[in-house]
Design brief:
The complex is a heterodimer.
Chain A: E1 5-18, E2 21-34, E3 38-42, H1 49-57, E4 65-72, E5 75-76, H2 82-91, E6 93-96, H3 100-103, H4 110-122, H5 126-139, H6 145-148, H7 158-170, E7 176-180, H8 188-205, E8 208-213, H9 216-220, E9 225-230, E10 233-239, H10 240-245, H11 250-257, H12 298-302, E11 308-309, E12 316-317
Parallel strand pairs in A: 3-8, 3-9, 6-7, 7-8
Antiparallel strand pairs in A: 1-2, 1-4, 4-5, 9-10, 10-12, 11-12
Chain B: E1 13-26, E2 29-42, E3 46-50, H1 57-64, E4 72-77, E5 80-81, H2 87-94, E6 97-100, H3 114-124, H4 130-143, H5 148-151, H6 161-173, E7 179-183, H7 191-208, E8 211-216, H8 219-225, E9 228-233, E10 236-242, H9 243-248, H10 253-261, H11 301-305, E11 311-314, E12 317-319
Helix pairs in contact in B: 3-4, 3-6, 4-6, 6-7
Classes of the chains: A alpha/beta, B alpha/beta.
Chain lengths: ~325, ~325
């Protein structure tokens, strides 16, 4: 990836002790993200995409164990002191969560929550902080920002709440914004507006972004690179155009095929993926997707494929039987 | 204005909704959830109903089944007016109509065994023979792709979301209904599971000769299963048409906006710069005239004054707009 590396995730694993045994939420993930770039992380529920983002932010549950390194701007976040982490999170790292209703405090006004962030992290006085807060609300497309400052989250629609959450996240000019399913709770027209807003602010601020989603459609037009996760591992990673044109991993292809297409005729049966994702408390040999995969053979059930690159240096996949769709078309 | 006459008249409709109005009274005013909706669903047809949250699509689906009564209007099911029915007559009629909900886990009682959950409609309908009930439950579980022997004695929490939705479908089908309202049946499910459930619904529809009202906010999902689609905005229908036609040539600016806003899983398709403006207004105080006018690029003075009627624009397609796109 071109440009200086801002974030480098090296062999990160997350273990969560549960009553049913040890849950391996993230299983050896390696990723890099350049300054100002967008990485899309795609996967179904339980694939570990949110846990990976929490590991980057060091916002994991207390019981969780993290292995590996998360290098952000040259510092290893896994080994940073809580105080240094807090400083870093306030100035350089920001996050927008899926549900704006639960990520905003329901008993504080929008103004209090936004101005508090500005006062604490940018050390502004109350007056200038409030002015800056109103400017930020205007920047994220909230009409009548001065009045909104004195409103509570429940007085706003879901889309407006998510705009407020984005304003708070952007307030301290972060270098990296992690957007964890930022539009999943929103309607499709509002989703388009929020994704546009994120893209615009990202360009304007030259901020890097990790866009986590279960929808391949969301990352297609908006991420520079995409990582597809399955059962805690990255199973395919490539620049976005290469991934869509030249999918190697059968899971990625199956996931794309399972999405109903607008140009298909009504009542066309969907190529569904049989079965369901494996139980993450149950350690399995071999490729985690093998029981559901049409290409799987004995080797897939015995050995775990590692992430390799073949034709193109930027295109990585973890599969013994890559699909080689249009192989050579991009070379 | 042709009150109560659906603009696309069908030969032999199983369901006919005439000028249905549903309102909720709050201390702060009246929520106009459904404001004069008329539509028909033919026997064996799937009608998709799309719209953003709060547009009244679920309220409409429930009002059809008389779960929440309409303020005015009629719902004719197989020629009989459900809105005029009460008590025993309505209960008998309800065996012919069923509902599948969005959240499959929340719609199953966590303390009851799967076998009992599916047998309950049979008990209510008066199936007294326990062996008969047992057989019907097993048959239905097999039909939705679950092994009765492995499933019957277990509790809902032992199943995934997709499996719970299969159980919900089995429960809805066990009385052999004719008509099912599917209210966002796949929006809580992952992509790979969603395709399984959509395929199952299609298979069940064929096998049991069902007629479906399929409510969803995802246009691609609706298109995949529907013969015809109705687009709803803030309590009113904007457009009704055959699903392939409607998506190829939308006549209502709102339909066009919804189609544009769908993220396409293809990096060569650049997302349009400005797909949508603003948010739906509150159903407590809907705009005068056309309810979509506050977000519509084509709106003018007339749109604020006159409520557009749903009128035929092409064979099988009707639109409620003063300035349609075609």
């Amino acid at each position: 990836m071109s440009g200086p590396t801002l974030l480098s995730v090296e062999d990160v694993a997350v273990n969560l002790p549960t009553s049913r045994g040890n849950l391996r939420a993230v299983d050896g993930v390696t990723l890099t993200l350049g300054a100002g770039k967008t990485l899309g992380i795609v996967g179904e529920s339980g694939c570990g995409k949110t846990m990976l983002s929490r590991a980057i932010l060091q916002l994991l549950p207390k019981k969780a164990k993290v292995f590996g390194r998360v290098l952000f701007d040259g510092q290893d976040l896994v080994r940073l002191s809580p105080e240094a982490l807090r400083k870093l999170r306030s100035r350089s790292l920001a996050v927008v969560f899926q549900d704006p209703m639960t990520s905003l405090n329901p008993v504080l006004t929008i103004g209090t929550q936004l101005v508090e962030t500005l006062q604490r992290h940018l050390e502004l006085d109350a007056g200038p902080a409030r002015k800056r807060g109103a400017e930020l609300l205007a920047a994220v497309g909230i009409p009548a920002p001065e009045q909104r400052l004195s409103q509570y989250p429940h007085q706003l629609s879901g889309g407006m709440r998510q705009r407020v959450a984005i304003a708070i996240a952007l307030s301290c000019e972060p270098k990296l914004l992690i957007a964890d399913e930022p539009t999943t709770a929103l309607d499709v027209t509002i989703q388009a507006q929020i994704l546009d807003l994120l893209a615009r602010e990202q360009r304007r601020r030259r901020m890097a972004m990790i866009l986590i989603t279960h929808d391949l459609g969301v990352v297609a037009g908006r991420a520079d690179e995409v990582a597809v996760m399955y059962a805690g591992r990255v199973v395919e990673r490539a620049p976005t155009p290469a991934l869509f044109k030249n999918m190697q991993m059968p899971y990625t292809a199956a996931l794309l095929a399972a999405i109903p297409k607008m140009d298909a005729a009504p009542h066309t049966p969907l190529p569904a993926i049989a079965g369901r994702p494996p139980d993450p408390t149950h350690l399995m040999q071999g490729c985690a997707f093998a029981p559901r995969c049409r290409c799987a053979d004995g080797q897939c059930l015995r050995e775990k494929p590692s992430l390799v690159s073949a034709e193109l240096p930027d295109h990585h996949y973890a599969c013994f039987h890559p699909l080689r769709i249009n192989a050579g078309a991009n070379t | 204005m042709m009150h109560g006459v659906p603009p696309v008249a069908l030969h032999d409709p199983l369901l006919r909704v005439e000028d249905l109005v549903v309102e909720y009274q709050l201390s702060t005013g009246t929520i106009h959830a459904v404001s004069g909706v008329s539509l028909e669903i033919a026997r064996g047809e799937t009608l998709g109903l799309v719209g953003e949250s709060g547009c009244g699509k679920s309220t409409l689906g429930r009002a059809v089944l008389q779960l929440g009564r309409a303020v005015s209007g009629r719902v004719l099911f197989d020629g009989e007016d459900l809105t005029a029915m009460q008590g025993e007559a309505l209960r008998k009629m309800r065996q012919r109509v069923q509902l599948i909900f969005q959240d499959p886990i929340a719609s199953l009682n966590p303390r009851r065994r799967i076998g009992d959950i599916i047998a309950e409609p049979l008990l209510i309908a008066g199936y007294k023979d326990a062996n008969k009930r047992e057989t019907l439950v097993s048959e239905m579980l097999s039909a939705v792709g679950l092994d009765p022997a492995l499933v019957k004695d277990r509790l809902p929490h032992e199943f995934s979301g997709g499996q719970c939705q299969r159980i919900c479908i089995a429960r809805a089908l066990v009385l052999n209904p004719e008509f099912i309202v599917c209210d966002e049946p796949v929006s809580a499910l992952d992509v790979s599971i969603r395709a399984q459930i959509l395929n199952l619904l299609e298979e069940m529809k064929q096998r049991f000769g069902l007629t479906l009202l399929f409510i969803a906010h995802d246009l691609a999902v609706v298109k995949a299963v529907s013969d015809r689609v109705a687009v709803m905005y803030l309590g009113r229908l904007c457009e009704v048409g055959a699903s392939s036609e409607l998506f190829a040539r939308p006549a209502h600016p709102y339909t066009a906006l919804l189609i544009e806003a769908i993220p396409v899983p293809n990096p060569d398709v650049t997302p349009p710069e400005r797909v949508a403006v603003g948010e739906p207004p509150s159903p407590l105080a809907p705009p005068s005239g056309c309810r979509f006018r506050t977000r519509c690029p084509r709106a003018d003075y007339r749109c604020a004054q006159e409520i557009p009627d749903l009128r035929p624009i092409r064979a099988g397609q009707a639109v409620a707009c003063h300035h349609p796109l075609i």
